[in-house]
Amino acid sequence: MTRWLVTGAGGMLGRDLLDVLAGEQVTALDRAALDITDAEAVRAAVAGHDVVVNCAAWTDVDGAESAEDAATAVNGTAVEHLARACATAGARLLQVSTDYVLPGDASQPYAESTATGPVNAYGRSKLAGERAVTRLLPEAGYIVRTAWLYGEHGRNFVATMLALAARQETVQVVDDQYGQPTWSYRLALRLAELGRSKAAPPGIYHGTASGQASWYELARAAFELAGLDPERVRPTDSSAFRRPALRPNYSVLSHERWSEAGLPPLPHWRDSLAEAFQRSAFSAV
To answer: In whole angstroms, what is the distance from residue 143 CA to residue 101 CA?
Structure first.
């Protein structure tokens, strides 16, 4: 039986992954149980496992602008510790990364082979982690980039929209940024499939839903599924929401490499969002 180690097990994606792996041999370590910036602690934790899934990360995109060294310690140097420990233990590493390693200025979906070019500190910190996996685990490292993640167990855009709907009549949402809303549970299922696969080649995969949407379109869809009037969502542009970190305008990723692993792309974002509501990942307002 495969011996799994899940780091960041207390987060949104980590908790979904533990649900997916229920009944298997899993060591679940949250932030309190494992400081992934501690190389010796990481080495000891990885020993004896076959597959390590790193769901731990610095996720404060705006905070990284003023604390890039701290963000890189978690998203870059700590991933290097994990990759080195996996190389020593003979384990495979599934590293969850982000669309933010890309420049975000394209007009068609980014292929897995596209040159990177992050526009903010968070993206640079995650790219450092990707490079560590590629360098140290060329035959056993899997980088799964995701984006616009939402789910039951953490703060996310869909939950925020429903909370706002309960407090105010209308909400303004940007309509000039495009991406792929991705359900964390669906991504967890894919990570488990990838970890179980004996044929999937190492390298970069894009773990995002199919299709594309603006934040405005996602908000309207969430309102509809919650039984709310989508006309309460009003479009605006990015200039209305100035934030410390620059956001990419176009975060749509292509999914060609899944065919090499014998797996289909993830379902369309609308289908996954509807399934998330059906599974009570979100309560109707």
So the answer is: 12
Task: Give domain limits for the chain.
Answer: 3-156+181-210+252-267
For residue 95, give every residue at least 6 positions away whose Cβ sits within 8 Å of its Cβ, in sequence order, or none: 54, 79, 82, 83, 129, 130, 133, 141, 142, 143, 144
Answer yes or no: 250 catalytic: no
| 194 DSSP assignment | H
d(CA 123, CA 100) in angstroms, rounded, equals 5
The token pair that represents 172 in the structure block:
């303004």
pLDDT for 141-157, tens place per residue? 999 999 999 999 989 99
For residues 166 and 22, the answer to whether their CB atoms sit within 8 Å is no
Q: How far is CA 71 from CA 121, 129, 223, in A?
A: 8, 11, 34
Write the pLDDT tens digit of every residue in 105-114: 999 999 999 9
pLDDT by residue (tens digit) across 116-150?
999 999 999 999 999 999 999 999 999 999 999 99
**HSE toward the beta carbon, residue 73, CA cutoff 13 A:** 9
Q: In the predicted model, is pLDDT for residue 242 greater than 90?
A: no
Average pLDDT value over all residues in the chain: 96
Q: How far is CA 51 from each of CA 27, 95, 97, 211, rounded to the nearest angstrom?
A: 10, 11, 17, 30
Does the pLDDT of residue 285 top 70, yes or no? Answer: no
Q: Which of 100, 110, 122, 250 is catalytic?
A: 122
Does the 3-156+181-210+252-267 domain belong in CATH 1.20.810.10?
no
Dihedral sign for Cα atoms in the order 179, 185, 186, 188: positive
